[in-house]
Amino acid sequence: MRSPAAAFAWEFGRRHRWGFIAFVVYFTVLATINVFFLGHRRVDFDNVQTFALAVVVPLATSFIYFLAVFSYGLAGDLAARQSMYPTRLFTLPVTTNALAGWPMFYGSIAMAILWIAFRFLGVWPSDAYLPVIWPMFLGASLLAWTQALTWMSYPLPGLRVIVTVLWLASIDAIVMLALHFKASEAVMLAIVVPHVPLAFLVARFAVARARRGDVPDWSRPFARVRSIADFVTRRNDDFRSAARAQMWFEWRLHGRSLPALVAILLPFELSLLFVFRETPGIVFEILISVLFTPLFMAAFVAATVSKSNLFMTTRPLTSASLVAAKLKATIVSTVVAWLFVLIAIPIGLRLSDTSSIVMDRWHRLLDSFGSPHAIAIVLVVLSALVASTWKQLVHSLYIGMSGREWIAKASVFIALSFLGVLFPFVHWLLRSRVAMAYLWNALPWIAAAFVAIKLSIATWIAARLHDTQLVSDRAIVLGAACWDAIVFAVYALLVWLLPSILFRGYFLALIAILAVPLTRLSAAPLALAWNRHR
Amino acid sequence: MSDAVIAVSELTRRFGAKTALASVNLSFPRGAVYGLVGANGAGKTTLIKHLLGLLRAESGSVRIFGRDPVADPVGVLSRIGYLSEENDLPGWMRVDELIRYSRAFYPGWDDAFAAELRETFALDPNAKIKTLSKGQKARAGLLIALAYRPELLVLDEPSSGLDPIVRRDILGAVIRTIADEGRTVLFSSHLLEEVEQVADHVTMIRSGTIVLSAPLDAIKESHRVDGRVPTLDEIFVAHAGASDADA
Fold first, then answer.
1. Angstrom distance (rounded) from CA A152 to CA A137
2. Pairing mode of beta strands B184-189, B33-37
3. Per-10-residue mean pLDDT, chain A, length 534
4. Which end of chain B, N or C, is surrounded by fewer C-beta atoms within 10 Å?
5. Least CB-CB distance to B54: which of A238, A241, A533?
6. How distant, in Å, are the alpha carbons of A293, A384, B15 from that of A46?
7. What's the rounded Cα separation, in Å, for the pair A82 and B8?
């Protein structure tokens, strides 16, 4: 390895070899299917989902992976003001042109290979027109801009994400517009090709600035806001117990993320009510998306909640107490996020003058179900959303608490594999009346099997908690009793709400048992102890 | 043995094919400063992690104050003050918040002593940990490790990469701790001059094996050459081998 160019290439190849190997294996399989089974024929996909699964998802996944790899985005902090370009490379005896240029060059080559491979080896619908050259340059230009904008240092935290998303979306919008007006290949090339040298110039500027340590700072105008926020959240009194101190620690570290994210998104979502106030259907879609916002954002926050570190593990608290502090902080986090939603919705409806649309629907619900049932339905839906938000925050706690990266990666792989199997299965199921009927009849047995698995695992976990004395016997019994009470309450509610002709009582009992979290939550102290005492 | 603050018996630990600790036996009675020395990768941190219960004894046993640190982390950790090279204090906390937070875990927390240490170390209570220099972070870590007057103070390479003034503070803390009757310090370092200044007893570890464990004076006396008492540095080179010493 005698040149910087070869060194850059070697580092990308060595560091991400498994990702690239997976990419090559995937294309080998795809090419084999395409050449030997389909004979290069185009395919008539039955529906959009199958096309998405066969073509769009693998292409988009590979594209995003390449973006992350070649912009060094897998290791840096997206929200930070500082450049994401690795500082260790700044001391290499190479020019800034080389620092910015080689990753961009290899990234562009990778993007070109990605498109060529998909274009010629992938399975495509028979009616699709597939250009060769300009999409290659589009991939390269999107990558080049991603690199330039992630390597740039910014005056405010989080600005990188906003600028990058808006800029890439603008390029996409221009391309979509050109396609809409059926622009020729030459026009498409004229639109996308100049982006690559332009992005290189910006990237070169960004790397040069980062190399000399320049980070612009606009935080001074926000200092007053920050000092107010600090004053509000600052802890000035003493903690009454270690458990309270740890709860505060978790709240400050992770608890505020979900309410903050929800609070940022709500004004944007609710502002759409002003735009679509004349279209009741869209008003309802907006409200539904607002109601699902905490649940959706909780999926992102969950990864940070389940993290642990040396500071936390050396606190003189039991593993169960450390987990309990996390659980309590997530409960507060969920409640605060939902308070924002429940306060913001009436304000949004009132200001946008769309409350009459909601009231109209509410009266129709009252007419259809009667007051008690209608109120109960709304309360149940809301409670289910709140509980699901909390569940989303804590359901992967046991994975993060284990501190094993391989468990986290394996769980993602298993989840994706499961989804990969589930989608075609559901697609097949929906088309087969016989299978649907069989499934409907077997549903209680399937639910019973899941309940048996869940309770067996829960029993094993309880026995381990007892043997290791991580949780006292009293706490285990109390926890089991609380879980029973919640299951019974959910069961009673389901019996009251759902018609007994469609759903038998025992089936509803099974559903209640499956709905209330037990095993994953109770496994968290075991996982933390396993991590804490390796 | 029953009076030992630290009692390690036949402790062996492997990470894959590498043996990090091989049949380690130690017994440290109360009320002295124990220096743990060895080259990088010799097994000092692995041993200390076992003492804190962060690693489970695969074979052999570890007892701190007669307790198993894995089975009873609260009972053990609440009596240990710990400062590591890997300063992992939460950067988002302010110094006064860190003090209030840490105070909640230790019934024996001494507010006056904590305030005195904060003054001595010139720590701004309003400063966020992430804005402190490396030396100031080490001082903040030292403050919360000392302020409850722990029975056992464990310092894992606390001076690495720090300036002489902070190193002096750390050594001062060791001296303060042993001034309190019956307290014990385990001080791991490869800065042998520092260990020599404060340690009563030195344990040398090489490739996971204890090669020497004796009072410092006895070690020096037994290595006397032609009437000259060697430095700990020279003794270390003689035992650990030139290659390890270079490391």
1. 22
2. parallel
3. 86 88 82 72 59 68 88 80 91 92 95 88 72 92 95 87 88 90 91 94 95 84 68 72 91 88 88 86 89 90 80 87 93 95 93 89 85 85 93 90 84 75 74 84 91 94 90 90 94 84 85 91 91 86
4. N
5. A533
6. 32, 35, 53
7. 46
Q: State how far the Cα of A272 lies from the Cα of A281, in Å rounded to an integer.
A: 13
Q: Do B84 and A249 touch (CB under 8 A)?
A: no
Largest CA distance in chain A: 80
| Cβ contact, residue pair B74, A319, below 8 Å | no
**Is some CB atom of chain B closer than 8 A to the CB atom of A532?**
yes
pLDDT digits (tens, 9 = 90+) for B116-170: 989 988 899 989 998 898 888 988 998 999 898 899 999 888 877 678 887 777 7
Amino acid at A71: S
Structure letter (DSSP) for residue B67: B
What tokens appear for B112 in the block?
């006056």
Say what the alpha-carbon torsion angle B31, B33, B38, B40 is, to the nearest 10 degrees. 110
The domain segmentation of chain A, as residue ranges, is 4-212, 240-395, 432-534
**Contact yes or no for B186/B198 (Cβ under 8 A):** no
What are the residues whose beta carbons fall under 8 Å from the beta carbon of A343, sequence distance 6 or more? none
> What would the two tokens of residue A455 be?
């309770």
pLDDT attached to residue B247: 40
Q: Which two tokens stand for residue A444?
A: 């209680």
CA A246 to chain centre: 27
Backbone angles phi, psi at A121, to 5 degrees: -105, -15
The angle, 0 to 180 degrees and rounded to 10, between the axes of the packed helices B134-146 and B111-120 is: 160
Sign of CA dihedral A509, A514, A516, A520: positive
Residue tagged 């004053």 (tokens):
A231
Q: For A313, name the nearest residue in chain B, comparing CA atoms only.
A: B54
DSSP code for A46: S
Amino acid in position A180:
H
Q: Which pairs count as long-range contacts for A412-420, CB under 8 Å and 24+ apart, including other chains?
A: A420/A53
Nearest-CA residue of chain A relative to B97? A235
The type of residue at B42 is A
Strands of B152-156's sheet in order across: B80-84, B152-156, B184-189, B33-37, B201-206, B209-215
- Please report, as a single letter, which amino acid is at residue A412: V
**C-alpha to C-alpha distance for B126 and B128, rounded to whole angstroms:** 6
A316 touches chain B (CB under 8 A): yes
> How many other C-beta atoms are found inside a 10 Å radius of the C-beta of residue B9?
15
Six-digit token pair at B147?
């302020």
Task: From chain A, pick out residues whose CB is under 8 angstroms from the CB of B70.
Answer: 533
> Any CB–CB contact under 8 A between A310 and chain B?
yes
Which chain B residues touch A238 with a CB distance below 8 Å? 100, 103-104
